[in-house]
Design brief:
The protein folds into two domains: about 230 residues, 3-Layer(aba) Sandwich (Rossmann fold); about 180 residues, Glycogen Phosphorylase B (Rossmann fold, 3-Layer(aba) Sandwich). About 45% of the residues lie in helices and about 15% in strands. It is an alpha/beta fold. About 45% of the residues are buried. The protein is built from 17 helices and 13 strands. The N and C termini lie far apart (about 50 Å).
């Protein structure tokens, strides 16, 4: 039997988030006889390494790599050197910056097999500086995995991805881990939440695309209609200070609680009465699947792949973008009609069975297997001999890539 393929999953950070939780679920379940998995991250520091210990407990090595951005030539060359030295046979990049930085380094290191994951449309990122990278790196990428039809339908024409290399694989969830609710009182005590109040939560990164302000502005609409209710923000992110300031300006510091990042999501969902997801941009949000699996009612905007599983009035409630009044009305409907809400949650639980973790991991591994088989001889030769990227060759390859980038950007500018 051939040796396991040395595989790197490159992520932006190990902050607690949907992408990171998904990587942990998959990496821990990949066939260890086929793949020797390690996770590398672009960002370092304690805040960016919240989940590092979770990966180590699953026997998955984690490491920070030196590259920071597409113009970080020394960092990318060092990353390429590391890939070559360790004999990496398969690179799986996850999300926007890893997709670009990792594939540039892999091109220089001549990594045989490359799979890029697109967890969102990244609609707010694409511009004339970024698109040429994607167009240059397209030919050397074996498979492009999109987590929703919305992501695929947006990205395939924009990036001109070859149809035969694009794969649609919805995110998955460990249904069994969420199916049996924890004791609500105990879960609330662990989070520092009152036992008897109604609690509405927004769970996710505190970033612009999650549209936290719409949730905050819905609180005054809810205060009179749900006396004593509290509103929890579960997560952390770069907009934390802005959100705290908005809470102070609105005089809501007694009603809105910042709970911070949490490790035990089944316990969090057992503690709350309703979850809202007012996002502007999504791929196929993991928190939606987790709510379905835990029978927790959810109110969400039709961002990204949300409408591909959530049916308004059947297994959840759909609201317009950036509409705090509609959000408030949907929350009140959820909490004031328990029988109707319970019926929706049971339907959601039945629907989420199709997204259970085992099938999701298998579909992803099938993509890896096909790509690896295509490069089997090269990967085998690579694993038997230690290789390196020489300083001169690496700089020359980088210079060629930068020249190709400038030419592509010029051509794209003329086309646009």
């Amino acid at each position: 039997m051939p040796e396991p393929v040395k595989m790197v999953i490159l992520v932006d950070s190990l902050k607690r988030g949907g992408v990171q939780r998904g990587v942990l679920l998959q990496a821990a379940r990949l066939d260890r006889a086929r793949y020797s998995v390690r996770v590398w991250t672009l960002r370092s520091g304690e805040k960016n390494w919240e989940m590092a210990e979770d990966f180590r407990k699953a026997d998955i090595p984690v490491e920070t790599v030196p590259a920071r951005h597409p113009n970080d030539q020394p960092g990318i060359l060092a990353l390429a050197q590391q890939m070559a030295k360790e004999g990496i046979g398969l690179l799986n990049t996850r999300s926007f910056h890893p997709n670009i930085i990792g594939r540039i380094a892999a091109r220089i290191a001549k990594v045989p097999a490359i799979v890029a994951h697109y967890h969102s449309t990244y609609a707010h990122h694409w511009n004339a500086k970024v698109l040429p990278y994607e167009h240059l790196l397209r030919s050397g990428t074996d498979a492009f995995v999109c987590v929703s039809q919305a992501a695929r339908d947006y990205l395939q024409p924009l990036l001109r991805l070859p149809e035969n290399r694009v794969r649609l694989i919805y995110n998955g969830v460990d249904v069994a881990a969420f199916a049996h609710p924890r004791d609500k009182a105990k879960a609330r005590q662990e989070l520092g939440l009152p036992v008897n109040a109604q609690i509405v939560a927004m769970i996710g990164r505190l970033t612009q695309v999650k549209d936290v302000p719409t949730f905050i502005r819905a609180v005054p609409h809810l205060a009179d209609r749900l006396p004593g209710a509290l509103f929890a923000l579960v997560g952390d992110g770069e907009d934390r200070e802005k959100i705290l300031n908005l809470i102070r300006i609105c005089g809501l510091h007694r009603s809105v609680l910042l709970v911070g990042s949490q490790e035990d999501m089944p316990s969090v969902l057992s503690a709350v009465d309703c979850v809202v997801l007012p996002s502007l941009v999504e791929g196929f949000p993991r928190i939606l699947l987790e709510c379905f699996a835990s029978r927790t009612p959810i109110v969400a905007t039709p961002a990204g792949g949300v409408p591909e599983i959530l049916r308004d009035g059947e297994n959840g409630l759909m609201i317009p973008f950036s509409n705090s009044e509609s959000l408030a009305n949907a929350v009140v409907r959820t909490l004031s009609s328990p029988d109707e809400t319970r019926t929706r949650c049971e339907r959601a639980f039945r629907d989420v069975q199709a997204f259970d973790v085992a099938e999701w991991v298998q579909k992803t591994q099938d993509v890896f297997d096909r790509v690896v088989e295509r490069h089997r001889a090269t990967i085998a030769a690579r694993s038997k001999s230690s290789s390196s990227v020489g300083a001169v060759r690496g700089k020359l390859d980088m210079a060629r890539f930068r020249l190709a980038y400038r030419m592509t950007r010029y051509k794209e500018g003329k086309r646009l």
